[in-house]
Amino acid sequence: MTDSPYHHGHLRTALLERAESVLAQSGADGLSLRALARDLGVSHAAPARHFRDRQALLDALAVSGFTRLNAALRGAAAAPGPPSARLTALGRAYVEFAVTHPPLLALMFTAKHAEDSSAELRELGHAGLGVAAGLIAEAQAAGTARPGDPARLAQVAFSTLHGLATLSLGGLLDDTPLDEALDLALEVLLAGIAPAS
């Protein structure tokens, strides 16, 4: 076994970091607690102190992913400027996360929609949409967004941005650079959210 800080209270963090790396390289099927223990130089039994089984590890990865994504979205929403500028920043933050962590994002949504998903996971999974809906409601109060259910408007915006990220990852934007496509998508979204003239 290697000398490492994992024996001093950091094993859970190390397991999650290594698991995310394996997830990115090999997908969820490549993850096992035994292999992670071997990679980190700890006993095969050590991960069981933190994760009862592989599914618990996957759920913890999803929680970690949503926590990081939501922090990025809240940071964008809290930036100075009008709601439209913050919505643009929020959209960019989502797409950046999606294209930087595609296997993690896929795991996050799969775990969130699982029949036995935890309340924590479901709450974290909906929090980002709540941030966007809050910004839209703020824009509505300022008269710079159309009337309507802010959560529904946020859901449509999310669908557009998630779809754009998915197309980019699949190489389906042809010759259009992602930045250019994202600029246009955000412009169209903001125009759609704006009140009718």
TrEMBL record:
- Domain HTH tetR-type as annotated: residue spans: 9-69
**Key words, A-Z:** DNA-binding, Transcription, Transcription regulation
Q: State the protein's name.
A: TetR/AcrR family transcriptional regulator
Instruction: Fetch the PROSITE patterns from UniProt.
Output: HTH_TETR_2
* Keyword hit for DNA-binding: yes
Q: Which residues bind DNA?
A: 32-51
Q: Which InterPro entries match?
A: Homeodomain-like_sf, HTH-type_TetR-like_transc_reg, HTH_TetR, MT1864/Rv1816-like_C, Tet_transcr_reg_TetR-rel_C_sf
Q: Which Pfam families match?
A: TetR_C_33, TetR_N
Keyword NAD belongs to the record: no
